[in-house]
Amino acid sequence: MDRSALGEQAANAFKDTRMENLQTFADIFGIKELDEPAPDSDTSVHIATVQGMVQRVLYAAEDTHPPAVDQYDCIVVDECHRGYLLDRELSDTELGFRTYEDYISKYRRVLDWFDAVKIGLTATPALHTSQIFGAPIYTYGYRDAVIDGYLVDYEPPIQITTELSAHGIQWKAGDAVKIYDVKRAQIELYNTPDEIKLDVDAFNRKVITENFNRVVCEYLARELDPNSRRKTLIFCATDAHADLVVHLLKQAFAAQYGAVEDDAVIKITGAADKPLQLIRRYKNEQLPNVAVTVDLLTTGIDVPEICNLVFLRRVNSRILFDQMLGRATRLCPNIDEDGDKEAFRVFDAVQIFDALQNMTAMQPVVVDPKISFTQLVSELATVADDAARALARDQFLAKLQRKKRHLGERGARDFETQVGMSPEQFIRQLRAMSLTEVANWFTQNPDLGEILDRKGDGPRQPVFISEHDDQLKSVARGYGPAKRPEDYLAEFTAYINSHSNTIPALLTVLTRPRDLTRKQLRELVLELDQAGYTETGLGTAWREMTNQDIAARIVGYIRQAAIGDALIPYTERVDHALQKLLASRAWTTPQRDWLKRIAAQTKANTLVDRDALDDPDLLFKTQGGGFKRLDKLFDGQLLQTLAAFNEALWQPTAA
Questions:
Q1: How many CB atoms lie within 10 A of CB 494?
Q2: Cβ(363)–Cβ(91) under 8 Å?
Q3: Largest CA distance in the chain
Q4: For 363-383, how does the pLDDT look when each residue is reduced to its tens digit (9 = 90+)?
Q5: Contact (Cβ atoms closer than 8 angstroms) between residue 4 and residue 276
Q6: Count of alpha carbons within 13 angstroms of residue 503, beta-carbon side
Q7: What backbone phi and psi angles, to 5 degrees, belong to 179?
């Protein structure tokens, strides 16, 4: 469903992009959209989903033919990381006894069908991405885009801790516990024979805890404005959880603001009525202001007004998490009376940042869980190569380690009848056997695979219902190892002082700021970013420590930390420097106008140097500028004028 939304989003972008003579891209070039199964002779762009192409290429109806291999000249795959994570080339061992089809996914088979240039686009490349498309030919990271002003940064995460999320939900042995039977859709009551403890990672998946969600929603209602243009996206664990959060958040908003429009908060999941229409409303209209989702809006959706993300679910994928964060990174100029969207906020109620800190990229032993036990049993009985046998045995053991926890009563009984021992004992025996003994055993017992491949035989997984009371315990910023803003600022000061003589650009900032170039500044910002210090993080820490919201820019924070410069808004510094420069001598009217333009660009980009005057992105050339022309306008003194302006920026002024 979200892939369809991405296709519709792409089509709308083509329709909105003006090319020439007020004509859009769609006007000039023929475009076929998602509902068109094939292009025609006038089509220049055809938009399709991977699922649609799989159907057309691999499962063409009897009365139709698959598309020709040369139907497309170029195939651009957006969000290309979303090819099946298990897609990879066969190892040398596997090539000896498995066909290529055993591992290759439909996603890749579709790409290989066409004789065309294939281009993959993604903000979060995974291992399989390069294996399908080749090594990246161009990379540009999120931090680079933030530093260059193409995306917005996020403030240190707001970590919401409740009593239950801190200590878990616990039942003692013998307690009466309510469980929800998913298959029978009914609530049952039983007395637990053992102690049960569920930590926050199980909240809203293994245990329904209304009180935890209520406490979080009541806090969010104090921080969010449902009537604002600044939108919020909340990630939930299940569709039922999303329903609960919508209900609780509406209650909390009503208590906080009084009457609130009913569609200020809506659920947008695959189970919602007309989800694509809901996505369009969320993107194009002021209401809904808050969207509650599960997976539908996790990747690719472009809504620049999203300024708040809320995590009420854990994810175990670093790639997915980065994609979820990416929903709020879009620029949004003049979003409200406060001006541009400078940063976005992240509310973490399930300790997701802590959980993902040590996330590794380890690959599973069983690369393809769709490989059946029956296939592995057959391979163990028939392959002759020891390396192939060892691989099949290891993959069988890895699958059995997972399967043994989900064998139902019938499955466990049939397993022990066939094998003569429990799964745990069988696993130990297989490990102790030689490869020849393993092959002989499976030759004599070929039916074990069928027993293990049965579906629906495992026990129902209960969903616990918690009625434990909860209350807000703490709300804190996630400044990394430093948990308090003053600690973060103190660590920043220590870092600046200890590196002032080892980072050349840092020494320039502290001693000769007039000589600083944009290239040096960018390198310095990247260096600080890698050390964990960002302009957004420093501004947030300063605001929380002093209750002063000062947009001082990174150079201001550096000089304040190292030499005690007054921390004042950067726009005020620019205005002061401009007035000082204008008063320093008599300027012609064109010169005064260009000094004002330079000051405006300095506010927007921190620094204007020699190279900036020829940068087309800064509009100097399009406004009739460029260094050569402006230098002539300033009587050959433009570089000296820029130096005087940049020096005035950092001269002492009243705070």
A1: 11
A2: no
A3: 101
A4: 445 445 567 888 888 888 888
A5: yes
A6: 22
A7: -130, 150
Determine which helix (DSSP H) or strand (DSSP E) holds 466, and give its type and residue range: strand 463-466
Q: What span, in angstroms and rounded, lies between the C-alpha atoms of 327 and 324? A: 6
Amino acid at site 584: S
Tell me the two tokens of residue 250.
Answer: 């509406």
Both tokens assigned to 36: 């068109």
For domain 143-360+462-478, give the fold: Rossmann fold (3.40.50)
Q: What is the CATH number of domain 2-142?
A: 3.40.50
Residue 617 corresponds to which tokens in the numbers above? 């992105």
Distance CA 200, CA 531 (A): 30
| 464: its two tokens | 């616990």
Pairing of strands 463-466, 207-209: parallel
The contacts found for 611-617 with CB under 8 angstroms, 24 or more apart, are: 611/517, 611/518, 611/519, 612/518, 613/638
Please list the alpha-helical segments (H only) found in 420-484.
Answer: 423-432, 435-444, 448-452
Structure-token pair, residue 196 = 């049960």
Give per-residue pLDDT as tens, 49-73.
Answer: 877 887 788 777 777 888 999 999 9
Q: pTM of the full predicted structure?
A: 0.75
Query: Residue 484 — φ and ψ, nearest 5°?
Result: -120, 150
Residues recorded for the chain = 655
SS3 (DSSP) at 175? coil
The ranges assigned to domains in the chain are: 2-142, 143-360+462-478, 373-452, 479-567, 572-649
